């Protein structure tokens, strides 16, 4: 691992303005983009912190060598263990995806530096101020990437708020289409179960009430999102990351992706309007298999049932999907927005009512022994899906 650039120099570099010139045309990073990004890292004037450095390290190793092939360091070899963990957590992520994610991460770091030093007060600042996401806006496409790969992109409270903020910004920016995807081997493992551990002074009842308010607002943002919204499902998807797919306009999936809504196993009930959208998409019996019995679908099955628009081999997933998206982004944006309105608007009121009802049922479910036991079992490492 000693061949990876040592980031200690970041602490002593002074303040040139950073500008990243990357060929974003294909939205899959070329070797040149990757090399540019590596050079850009060396120019960073501010230490991005250990967590980011580990992410960069892991993506670099995955992009250049593929899946982690080093023996696991001993427990007392803390630094190499942290590096090994970061690399290993990327699993079988394809090299080209790792390369793209590396370029995106460097781009978000660079633009964050740029805007803090260059942007006039009040000017729209893209891609900055997100802890749990990477957000880029290029070539008519705003791309929101869930960015907690070490936690399988589990959605913690901060991420719920950041996704809402990113969607609100995307609805107003000059992009034509918006994409949601995940960094690492998962698309998302759904609600972060540690969200349930932060109990306010009002106790579990207050926690359940606050969570229901948050969930309702979160799902509402998807119902109301005005531009074409595309999910690029790069790996397994669980829970709420699956249910809200019914509110997307197009869903592309890698053949590595799976779709799992284990609500009964968790003592919970459907959300994300899936109690309505899934029935419309796949009919009541198939929807029941998923939402009540927790049947996990392969990408092929999800496509056959209409939840997924198209499935691509993982090895060519990014290339094929981004070629399509780039073409979509060139279509007249107003026409696309208005067509979406015509297609979706008559359902909006119904969807908001379904959302409200699902949240109110869940508020009760979260207080049930079934749910509390399931969460405790996961947190105490007694269970996993
Ligand atoms: C407020 C609004 C509420 C809306 C409600 C929504 C409902 C849902 O979304 S229900 C779905 C909830 N999700 C789960 O039950 C998934 C739980 N996770 C797992 O079963 C497994 O982690 C996995 C099958 C997803 C992956 O297993 P694998 O062996 O490959 O990896 P791990 O070692 O388990 O995971 C790595 C790391 O990530 C942490 N983690 C993963 N998923 C979650 C999660 N959903 N919540 C919290 N933490 C998660 C896992 O604990 C590991 O952490 P450590 O490295 O610190 O041990």
TrEMBL record:
<keyword id="KW-0597">Phosphoprotein</keyword>
<keyword id="KW-0496">Mitochondrion</keyword>
<dbReference type="InterPro" id="IPR014352">
    <property type="entry name" value="FERM/acyl-CoA-bd_prot_sf"/>
</dbReference>
<dbReference type="InterPro" id="IPR022408">
    <property type="entry name" value="Acyl-CoA-binding_prot_CS"/>
</dbReference>
<keyword id="KW-0007">Acetylation</keyword>
<keyword id="KW-0576">Peroxisome</keyword>
<dbReference type="GO" id="GO:0000062">
    <property type="term" value="F:fatty-acyl-CoA binding"/>
</dbReference>
<dbReference type="Pfam" id="PF00887">
    <property type="entry name" value="ACBP"/>
</dbReference>
<comment type="function">
    <text>Able to isomerize both 3-cis and 3-trans double bonds into the 2-trans form in a range of enoyl-CoA species. Has a preference for 3-trans substrates.</text>
</comment>
<keyword id="KW-0413">Isomerase</keyword>
<dbReference type="GO" id="GO:0005782">
    <property type="term" value="C:peroxisomal matrix"/>
</dbReference>
<feature type="domain" description="ACB">
    <location>
        <begin position="30"/>
        <end position="115"/>
    </location>
</feature>
<dbReference type="InterPro" id="IPR029045">
    <property type="entry name" value="ClpP/crotonase-like_dom_sf"/>
</dbReference>
<comment type="pathway">
    <text>Lipid metabolism; fatty acid beta-oxidation.</text>
</comment>
<dbReference type="InterPro" id="IPR001753">
    <property type="entry name" value="Enoyl-CoA_hydra/iso"/>
</dbReference>
<dbReference type="InterPro" id="IPR014748">
    <property type="entry name" value="Enoyl-CoA_hydra_C"/>
</dbReference>
<dbReference type="InterPro" id="IPR035984">
    <property type="entry name" value="Acyl-CoA-binding_sf"/>
</dbReference>
<comment type="similarity">
    <text>In the C-terminal section; belongs to the enoyl-CoA hydratase/isomerase family.</text>
</comment>
<dbReference type="Pfam" id="PF00378">
    <property type="entry name" value="ECH_1"/>
</dbReference>
<dbReference type="GO" id="GO:0004165">
    <property type="term" value="F:delta(3)-delta(2)-enoyl-CoA isomerase activity"/>
</dbReference>
<dbReference type="GO" id="GO:0005739">
    <property type="term" value="C:mitochondrion"/>
</dbReference>
<keyword id="KW-0809">Transit peptide</keyword>
<protein>
    <recommendedName>
        <fullName>Enoyl-CoA delta isomerase 2</fullName>
        <ecNumber>5.3.3.8</ecNumber>
    </recommendedName>
</protein>
<dbReference type="InterPro" id="IPR051053">
    <property type="entry name" value="ECH/Chromodomain_protein"/>
</dbReference>
<dbReference type="InterPro" id="IPR000582">
    <property type="entry name" value="Acyl-CoA-binding_protein"/>
</dbReference>
């Amino acid at each position: 691992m000693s061949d990876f650039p040592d980031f200690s120099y970041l602490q002593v570099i002074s303040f040139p303005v950073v500008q990243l010139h990357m060929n974003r045309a294909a939205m899959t990073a070329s070797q040149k983009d990757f090399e540019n990004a590596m050079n850009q890292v060396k120019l960073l004037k501010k230490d991005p912190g250990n967590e980011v450095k580990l992410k960069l390290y892991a993506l670099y190793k995955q992009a250049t060598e593929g899946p982690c092939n080093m023996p696991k360091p001993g427990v007392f070899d803390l630094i190499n263990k942290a590096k090994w963990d970061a690399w290993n957590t990327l699993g079988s992520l394809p090299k080209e995806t790792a390369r793209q994610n590396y370029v995106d991460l460097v781009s978000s770091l660079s633009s964050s530096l740029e805007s803090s030093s260059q942007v006039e007060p009040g000017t729209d600042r893209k891609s900055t101020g997100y802890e749990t996401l990477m957000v880029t806006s290029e070539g008519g496409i705003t791309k929101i990437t869930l960015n907690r790969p070490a936690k399988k992109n589990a959605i913690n409270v901060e991420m719920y708020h950041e996704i809402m903020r990113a969607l609100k910004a995307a609805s107003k920016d000059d992009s034509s289409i918006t994409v949601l995807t995940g960094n690492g081997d998962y698309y998302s493992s759904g609600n972060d179960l540690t969200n349930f551990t932060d109990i306010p002074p009002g106790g579990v009842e207050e926690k359940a009430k606050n969570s229901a308010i948050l969930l309702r607002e979160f799902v509402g943002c998807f119902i109301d999102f005005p531009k074409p919204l595309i999910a690029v499902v790069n790996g397994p998807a669980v829970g709420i990351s699956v249910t809200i797919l019914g509110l997307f306009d197009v869903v592309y999936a890698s053949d590595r992706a799976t779709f799992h809504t284990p609500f009964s196993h968790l003592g919970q009930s459907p959300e994300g309007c899936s109690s309505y959208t899934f029935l419309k998409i796949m009919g009541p019996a198939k929807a029941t298999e998923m939402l009540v019995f927790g049947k996990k679908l392969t990408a092929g099955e999800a496509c056959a049932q209409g939840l997924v628009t198209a499935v691509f081999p993982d090895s060519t997933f990014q290339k094929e999907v981004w070629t399509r998206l780039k073409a979509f982004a060139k279509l007249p944006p107003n026409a696309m927005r208005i067509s979406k309105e015509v297609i979706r608007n008559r359902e909006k009121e119904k969807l908001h009512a379904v959302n409200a009802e699902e949240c109110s049922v869940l508020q009760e479910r979260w207080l049930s022994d079934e749910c509390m036991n399931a969460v405790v079992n996961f947190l105490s490492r007694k269970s996993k899906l």
